[in-house]
Every structure is written in structure tokens, then in C-alpha cells.
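Milestone 3.1: sequence recovery, worked example.
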């Protein structure tokens, strides 16, 4: 969640570009920020899951007592837009509170019901202990620097906040490379030449600027969590973003009857030309564990032959309490044409024995790849099951069938899920950095910060070569030394009918960098089933660097290859006590990896470049492509 503001009881709560550093909670002796999808506020639902336990029986949704519920709505046309040339302003050297927005530091614990919490699914002594991958520098990597913190901060004539982390979206097709971060978007050609932008996403979606530092200041809507997708089937680019309305005078989220939150969707066939902007109002989408108005946190996207799919975690706007996962299915052809069309929503979702579901990742299919055509069209989803931030050894595979009916007046979709036993994975620790120059830390009297790894939710899912490919952050124990963060990867072979789904593990494993850390893995796979895992490499031996490893179903993951060497430590404001941080700087929240029409895999990864910075942050992004 990017920097935004909300006042509650005459005080304010700050989010820091998709996961706030100022509102924290304690869980299993790990301090995690409220911005991890506002997971802390889901405490009641998560405690229920622990009480009931998590089983391993396939579920046909609808068998549970309360749902799922299915509803329909219409998209709303918001207008048209173009990505204008970048407009630079001040990088923000002395804006005080208006650089980040007001903040409230609150420490709360995730509640558990005494005497009823079951033991962890996997004992703590079963932390994965895989062998380390070799770390090498490839002979050559084609890549270029993408959007930096400075780029986004100075866009829109400087009417932006300082934000961490970037949350990278990437789409490649028709010789265009589109990158979106918190809170800017840009278009490049394959050689890295800038074609349009960087443009502030608020302005791209036709909204007020994030902040105009006039007297008095004027605040714009809160936007966060960008995603970008190219669909070769329709030759269309899709960009999505969470939006929450705010009070222009205070920046506070509007509540009660005035509240509104939407998922914004922009579509085009030429990203340097006109985009059509549509919206899906999610204000009343939730209610599984309490009332709305709600917002749909971290929209996740995917597509099959017939539909475009969005998954969110709903949270109350006023209390930030969890309100259940939501799945949205939209006719892909109509959406690609910019039409006002029907949205089918599933809520009251459950997985395993838990009374809820969380962070359900839709799958996408690479150019030239075969969509799942069984049961009149099938879209797959995958989710992780470690709700207690410990260890688990299961994933959940979902199948939405009869997706061809999305193009009819009365869609008749069937949603099922089942548990798949996998290798062990678990909540990752924060990452240590190589010591280096940290001017911001020095200026406020702080030590070099650690780097956040967030949690062990899945990062993205690809359906290619008849299989589901995914990865997540996981705690690992290398051969020598304490626990680190590695990438746990999974290749699953799914089977589905209109009434059931199952999957087997085709291969699985880990990417481990011995005494260093692998953060925020994203898997890109081409139609031939050749993949690449993109991630940040950081640790005692490395400043945050852009890296990758090849992946295929036979050989698993290859060596760790460095695409762009980090030049300095992460030195951003979110890790320092002077800015309400707790020594852990925000990173991620996700990388990106996608295949192009030629089968090359394009990667977008956060790292620290040797380039101009702002006072408050020095993150950058690196975009590269690999022939797997």
C-alpha cells in the first residue's frame, strides 16, 4: 500500500506505498507492517482459521453454510487518457509532513483464542534446508534502468509523495514495454528508449494529483498496487490500480455514506496512444466478517481465453478489518474493446478448512500458449495457506469453469478448489544488507536498515505448457549460518471438471543464495514451458541487486545470475525511526516476469542503481530480458 492518509478519531494513519511502516503489529515475535495487505486487521478471521485448523480435502464451493455468494455489476466508463511526456518538478527536499502525510504509530498484537489454537501445520524444526544455488554473473544481459523513486516523485510537476516500495507491474508485447510502479507509468521500446512518461498514475487515471502543496494543501485520491498485462489474444494492454476516495482538504479516507473505493482498469492496443478507463466499484464488496464500506486491497490479475480476472482482499475503510477475499470475472473481449460490460463477483470464499480465503492469484497465459479449454473454458488460481506466519506445506488450486459463458447474457460459472501437498515454506525474516553509504540514515542518526521480505503469499501465477508455475518468499536454512530468505517455487499439473479440481506436483524446489537473501520472486514462462524467476539478491555480500534464475520442469532452477549489480544499500525513509520506521525498510512488494511473442522472458526487479536519488529514498528498477 503506497503512502496515503486516513484520520480516525481525530488522529491519522499513514500507509507507505503499499504497506505502511508506521502501523505495525506483533506476530510470532515478528514485527510486520500493517501494509502487508493490512493483514493485521484481519486478526479475527485469522484467529478463527487457527481455531478450526486447516484440512486437505477438495472443496466444492457452495457446500459451506454461508456461501459463496455470486453477484453481478456493471463497469463504469471513466473517460480516456494518454501517457503524456514526463513533467518534472521539485524532488521534495523540505516538505516536512507533506512529504509523506501525517502518521500514527500503533502497536497491536494479532489476537488468538487461548487454549484453542492448534499447533503449527509444520514444526519449526522443519525449516527448509536446501542446497544453495551458485551465484554467477552472466556474460551479457540486455536491460535498462526503469522508473526510479526520483522519477515518480518529480512526475506531475512534483505533486507526488515520497513512496516505498515500488510494486512493479510489467507488460511486453507488440514491441512495447510498459512498466508501472507506485505511483507512475512509462512506456519503452525493447531497447529501453523511453516512448512515453513517466506519468503519475493519479493523472493517468484522470484523478486529482496526489498532493498539491498549496496553502492550504489539496489532496488527491489514494491509489496503489499497479499491475500491467499484455494479452496477445486481443492485442490489448491492461493496467489496473486500487483507488480510494479522500477528503481533498485533509487527505483522510471518506467514510460512511461518502466512502468510495474502486478498481480502476485502463485498456488500449497502443500504450503510446489513447487508453479507455473503466472502473469497478468495490465499496460494498465484502461483508464476510463485518460491514463495509470496503476497499479491495492489492488487486491481482490474470486471464484465460474468455475472461479477465481480478482478485482482491477486502478491508473495511474505517476500521481496516478483514472482510474476505473477492474474485471478479469480466468478459475479456468486451473489456479489451473498452466496453461497459458485466462483472461477475464471487465472495464468501473459503479454502481448506478455514472460514475465509486470502490473496488468490489468478493465472495468466503467455503469448502462443494454450489456454485451459476443458469445461467450456477454465481459469486457474493458486493461493498459499500459511495464515499463522509459521510453516506450511500446502497450496490451494482453484478452477473457474465455463468461462466461455462470460460472453453470454447469463454467465454460469462454477468455482471449485482443492488442497495440494507441497514442499515446506514459511514466513521469511527481514534481510541484511552489505554495509555502505547511507546519507539519509546518517542525517537522522540511524543505522543502516534491514530490507523487508513481507510474507509468504504467492507472487504471481502462470499457466503454460499445461502447468501452473508460481513462487513465493520463504524462510530457508542455508548450509552455514542463520536462516535467510529464499524463493520456494512450484510447478503444478492441474486437472479440472465442472465440479472438481485437483493438481499434482510436477516439480518444486528452492532458489537459495547461501548467506544472502532472495526476495520477491516472480516466475515468467513462455509457451514452450521455459521459465525464468526474477528477484532481488541482497545480503552481507551484495547491495540490493536485480537477479534471476532459469527454470524448467525437468531441471528445476539454475544458478543465480546477476542482471544488474546494486550500487549502494537501500537508504529509504521507511526503515528509520525519524520517519516512524522500525529499522526495516520497505521493499517489493512484488517483482514481475512475463514472456513476449518470441519466447523471451522480460523481468522487472527493484534494486539500488547508481543514479540520482531524492533525499528520502534511493530505490530504482531494472528491466531486462532473458532467452531461457
Amino acid at each position: 500500500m503506497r503512502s496515503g492518509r486516513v484520520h480516525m478519531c481525530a488522529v491519522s494513519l499513514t500507509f507507505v506505498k503499499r504497506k505502511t511502516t508506521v502501523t505495525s503489529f506483533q506476530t510470532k515475535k515478528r514485527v510486520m507492517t500493517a501494509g502487508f495487505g493490512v493483514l493485521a486487521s484481519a486478526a479475527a478471521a485469522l484467529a478463527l482459521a487457527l481455531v478450526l485448523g486447516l484440512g486437505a480435502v477438495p472443496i466444492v464451493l457452495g457446500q459451506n453454510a454461508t456461501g459463496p455468494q455470486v453477484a453481478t455489476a456493471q463497469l463504469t466508463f471513466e473517460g480516456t487518457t494518454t501517457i503524456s511526456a514526463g513533467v518534472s518538478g521539485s524532488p521534495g527536499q523540505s516538505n516536512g509532513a507533506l512529504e509523506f502525510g501525517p502518521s500514527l504509530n500503533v502497536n497491536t498484537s494479532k489476537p488468538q483464542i487461548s487454549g484453542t489454537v492448534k499447533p503449527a501445520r509444520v514444526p519449526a524444526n522443519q525449516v527448509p534446508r536446501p542446497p544453495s544455488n551458485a551465484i554467477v554473473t552472466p556474460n551479457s544481459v540486455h536491460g535498462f534502468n526503469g522508473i526510479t523513486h526520483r522519477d515518480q516523485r518529480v512526475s506531475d510537476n512534483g505533486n507526488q509523495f515520497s513512496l516505498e516500495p515500488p510494486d512493479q507491474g510489467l507488460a511486453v508485447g507488440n514491441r512495447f514495454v510498459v512498466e508501472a510502479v507506485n505511483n507512475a507509468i512509462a512506456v519503452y521500446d525493447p531497447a529501453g528508449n523511453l516512448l512515453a512518461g513517466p506519468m503519475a498514475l493519479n493523472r493517468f487515471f484522470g484523478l486529482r494529483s496526489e498532493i498539491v502543496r498549496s496553502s492550504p494543501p489539496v489532496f488527491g485520491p489514494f491509489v496503489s498496487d499497479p499491475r500491467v498485462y499484455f494479452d496477445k489474444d486481443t492485442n490489448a494492454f491492461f493496467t489496473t490500480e486500487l483507488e480510494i476516495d479522500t477528503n481533498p482538504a485533509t487527505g483522510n479516507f471518506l467514510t460512511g455514506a461518502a466512502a468510495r473505493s474502486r478498481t480502476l482498469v485502463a485498456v488500449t492496443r497502443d500504450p503510446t496512444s489513447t487508453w479507455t478507463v473503466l472502473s469497478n466499484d468495490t465499496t460494498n464488496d465484502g461483508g464476510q466478517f463485518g460491514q463495509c464500506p470496503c476497499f479491495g486491497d492489492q488487486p491481482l490479475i490474470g486471464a484465460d481465453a474468455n475472461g479477465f480476472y481480478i482478485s482482491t482482499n477486502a478491508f473495511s475503510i474505517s476500521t481496516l478489518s478483514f472482510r474476505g477475499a473477492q474474485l471478479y470475472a469480466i468478459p475479456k473481449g468486451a473489456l479489451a474493446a473498452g466496453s461497459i460490460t458485466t462483472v461477475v463477483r464471487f465472495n464468501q470464499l473459503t479454502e481448506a478448512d478455514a472460514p475465509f480465503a486470502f490473496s488468490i492469484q489468478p493465472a495468466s497465459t503467455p503469448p502462443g500458449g494454450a489456454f485451459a479449454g476443458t469445461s467450456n473454458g477454465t481459469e486457474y488460481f493458486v493461493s498459499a495457506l500459511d495464515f499463522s506466519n509459521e510453516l506450511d506445506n500446502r497450496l490451494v488450486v482453484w478452477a473457474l469453469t465455463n468461462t466461455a459463458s462470460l460472453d453470454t447474457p447469463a454467465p454460469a460459472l462454477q468455482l471449485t478448489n482443492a488442497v495440494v501437498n507441497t514442499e515446506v515454506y514459511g514466513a521469511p525474516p527481514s534481510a541484511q544488507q552489505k554495509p555502505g553509504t547511507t546519507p539519509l540514515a546518517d542525517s537522522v542518526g540511524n543505522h543502516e536498515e534491514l530490507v523487508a521480505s513481507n510474507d509468504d503469499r504467492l507472487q504471481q501465477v502462470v499457466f503454460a505448457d499445461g502447468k501452473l508455475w508460481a513462487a513465493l518468499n520463504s524462510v530457508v536454512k542455508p548450509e552455514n549460518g542463520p536462516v535467510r530468505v529464499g524463493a520456494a517455487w512450484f510447478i503444478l499439473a492441474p486437472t479440472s471438471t465442472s465440479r472438481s479440481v485437483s493438481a499434482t506436483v510436477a516439480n518444486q524446489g528452492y532458489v537459495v543464495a547461501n548467506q544472502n537473501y532472495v526476495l520477491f520472486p516472480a516466475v515468467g514462462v513462455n509457451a514452450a514451458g521455459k521459465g525464468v524467476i526474477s528477484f532481488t539478491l541482497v545480503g552481507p555480500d551484495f547491495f540490493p541487486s536485480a537477479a534471476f534464475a532459469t527454470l524448467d520442469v525437468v531441471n528445476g532452477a539454475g544458478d543465480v545470475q546477476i542482471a544488474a549489480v546494486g550500487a549502494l544499500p537501500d537508504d529509504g525513509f521507511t526503515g528509520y525511526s525519524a520517519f516512524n520506521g522500525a529499522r526495516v525498510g520497505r521493499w517489493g512488494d512484488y517483482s514481475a516476469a512475463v514472456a513476449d511473442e518470441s519466447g523471451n522472458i522480460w523481468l522487472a526487479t527493484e534494486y539500488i542503481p547508481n543514479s540520482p536519488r531524492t533525499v528520502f529514498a534511493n530505490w530504482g528498477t531494472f528491466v531486462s530480458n532473458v532467452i531461457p
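The longest helix spans residues 43-52. Residues 4-626 form one domain.
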